[in-house]
Structure formats: C-alpha cells, structure tokens
Amino acid sequence: MRKGDAAIGVFDSGLGGLTVVREIAALLPAERVIYFGDTARIPYGTKSPDAVTRYALQATAFLSTFNLKLMVVACNTASSLALSAVSEAACVPVEGVIEPGCRAAASATKARKIGVIGTEGTIQSGAYAAGIHAIDPACEVHSAATPLFVPMVEEGRISGEVPRLVAEEYLAPLLDKGIDVLVLGCTHYPLLRGVLGEVAGPGVSLVDSAVTTAGRVRDVLAERNALAAAGRPGQHRFYVSDDPAKFAAVAGTFLGDAVGEADWVDIERY
Amino acid sequence: MRKGDAAIGVFDSGLGGLTVVREIAALLPAERVIYFGDTARIPYGTKSPDAVTRYALQATAFLSTFNLKLMVVACNTASSLALSAVSEAACVPVEGVIEPGCRAAASATKARKIGVIGTEGTIQSGAYAAGIHAIDPACEVHSAATPLFVPMVEEGRISGEVPRLVAEEYLAPLLDKGIDVLVLGCTHYPLLRGVLGEVAGPGVSLVDSAVTTAGRVRDVLAERNALAAAGRPGQHRFYVSDDPAKFAAVAGTFLGDAVGEADWVDIERY
Question: What is the DSSP letter of A249?
Fold first, then answer.
C-alpha cells in the first residue's frame, strides 16, 4: 500500500464536522475520509476541558484503528482544548481548525479588528485570540460565546426572527468594536451564514475555517508526499456514537450530497 | 441500620433534576438524597432511545453502590425511554416523573384537553399521552417537542423577547386546540414558568411534575414503612460526570438554597 492510499481521519463532536469533509472532498476528490461524529455525547462546547480531552482521546483511539496518514480535529472546541493531547496520542500528523481560521482572519482584516464567535469552551480557551496574536500581536480580537447557535442549527432554525434577534444580541458588542472580520468558530455556524451576514452587514467578512482547513490538509499532504493518486474517487466511511439512522437524516444538510450510511461505534470502550 | 436510614437515589441528565430534590427536601426534610447528574453527556433529550437507556443503566449501576431504599429517575427523557430497563436493573423500587405528572394533569384539566411540552426524546416516546390515556382514555393530549428550552435555560435566558417568541411559536398549536393544562415535561422548564404562564395565559394551569413526584415518593416510602425518622436533617450527596466546579455555580439556581460540593464520577466505567 502506498503512503497516499491511507485515509484522512476526521472527528467532531457531532455532524458539524461534515462541513470540513465537504471542503476536503471538493479540494481533494481522490482522498478517502474516515469520519467519526460523537453524536452520543454532543455538544462538547458546554463541557469541561477535562471531559472534552477525554472524549477527544477516545475518538483518536478509535480513528487510530484505521490506516491513516493525517488526522483532522474538525471540532473547534476539541481543537481549542485538546489538540496537543490528541497530537501526542496520535501516530500521524494532526491538524485542528483553529490555526487555519486564524490565518484566514488575519489576512482578511484591514481594520486589524477581528470578531470571533464560538462555543463557551472554545471562547473560554482563548485559542483563537492566541492564534491570531501569534500572527499579528497588534490585532484586536473580540470574542463572544454564542451557546444558542448549535441547538438552533440542530433544530433547523437557521432563518427567521428568532435567529436574527439572537444573532443581534450576540454580535452587538463585537460590531460596536468595529470588527471587519467575523470568524465562525464552530462547524455549525456556516449554516447560519445568511442571518450572520445580514446582522453583521456588508462591511464584515465571514471566515469559515472549513475551507481554510481543507487547504491546510492539502499542503501538509503535499509536503509529506502523501496525496492520494488522482483519478481514484475517494470512498468515505462514517461512524457515529449514537443512532446511525439520525446520521442519514441530518448528514445531507452538512455534506450537501447524498452520503452513505454510518456505522455505530461504542466509543466508551476506547 | 433501619430501613428508613437508607437514602433516596435520584438521577438526571444534568442538574435539572435538582428541582425534584428541592421538592423532596421540602416535603420530607429528614430524607437523605444521593444525586447523580450526567453533566458530561447532557442533554439526553436529543439522543436515541438506545443511548438514553445505556446512560440510565450506568447511572443505576453507580447509584446502586449506595444503600438505597428508592430510586427516582428525575429526567423526563430517561423516564420516558428507560424506566422499565432501570426498574429491572435496580434492586429497589424505581419511580419516574412521567406518571406523577400525568396524574396531576388529568386531575387538573376541566376541558379534558392537556398540552405536553418536552424534549424530542420525551415527546417521540409518547409516554405522557399513554400515561394520561391510562387514566382518562377520552382526554385529548396535544404534544410539542421544544428543544430550544433546555439550552435557553442553561444559558440563563429565562425571560425577555427571545424566550417569549420561542414559547409563542412552540405553544401556538397547543393553545389553538383549547388546552387548559400544560405539563412542563422536562425538569428545566419550571425555570421558564414566568414566560410560559404569560404566553399560555391565565386559563391554562402549568403542571410541574417535580412537586407531584415528591408526593409520590412520600407515598411509596410510607407504604413500605421506609420513611426516615423525623428530626434528623437529611445530608444529601451530589455526584456529576463532568467538572464539579460547574455544579456549585449552577446548583443554586435549581435547588434554591446553597448546596454543598459535588464529586466527580467516571460514569463510563459503570
């Protein structure tokens, strides 16, 4: 087996990380992805750093049963809180979604004032602020935890009066600071892009780290001479820790195209 | 040790079940409660019946390490989906929160039209409708899943425009049917009592099963001659599966009085 034949392991607290799979598939159609969504324990964003790290290490142990060449922590909360623990535990390079988001934001801002929204865990970790300041120490970073967005998206409530009101409340303090870039620091948030764009206004660019993460995956694989041979269509595999039937119903929203079935994993055994 | 000296085990997906502890403590101040809140895997309401049952059995196994005389499944979702599994696994009588809520609702309705709100898991189980129909087969039961209420309460967003709008949307179909009783089928919902009462209007009584569950606990213990000796103040103990520090911050909202510390349990080992 060639190095390039190995798969890319991707995990998330649930199905939001499928937005990252979608971008990887669009950019690198020959790559094969093994996806794990921890749907039995979602959300991670309101859980403690210890719990998130424990869960991320179980996901790593599970994904490590496959022949991988790279692992992507597609969950912003797990990327913020557990990336170093996962990197230590994994036998392959590990990429998170924070750093690509920081790079994209830092290069997009002209005002050097960046807004970041995410779960409580992501925002409290300070990972985005640290990542942006590592690139541009003078850049202002204004953050807000927006805990209602994930359950709103999961309910399918992505437009209308309630999301707009909630978005207005959450974004007002950031907009008051004059941000011109808003990082969507959670894989669910791109589904609220319409409302967020409307509330933030045309002067604010929205950064979705799924796109930039896919670019980073390409670069790392190219560097290591580990890209899949072109032409072969990637056959992805999906695993979840709760009922796979729900996966089929929801996955289309995130992944765009019809995706196959998912299999159940008893993740607590890892 | 007298039979009455044993404790009452109570578990919930998180801290909402503390409203049941509060009512037990108010009605039976000499009783000792051992509480387990599965904060590392909350919420249960959006998870599959299999996952909820697995979690409820782990909670049962953990609580069974104590000397109990009764177990209360304070979580509506777990009561709906896993009560018989828990009853089989436990060595003591088990009470859920559904049946007491059904009794209270059936005796409160004059129109014989009852509304029930709860999590997706609770509503899809049909447990409230079945319980009410067992008492009064001709009573109309109109149900609605209200998935945004738990995250709203957990964010502390219990009044204002957003909760009112969301409550209006969720309750409109039930109010249109002419209900005169609304069962708050989730331990978090009593914290939204203000908004729900306002939206439902004065013609609709709100039923909070925490109060009626405490009454049921008293009856069962009295029947079995297992009430604690009066006069001794009950010393409760609290356990959670995620960071205990968060417990202290939130528990007061539910339990009213200052509560002690909680200890961490590695629930996946049970």
Answer: H
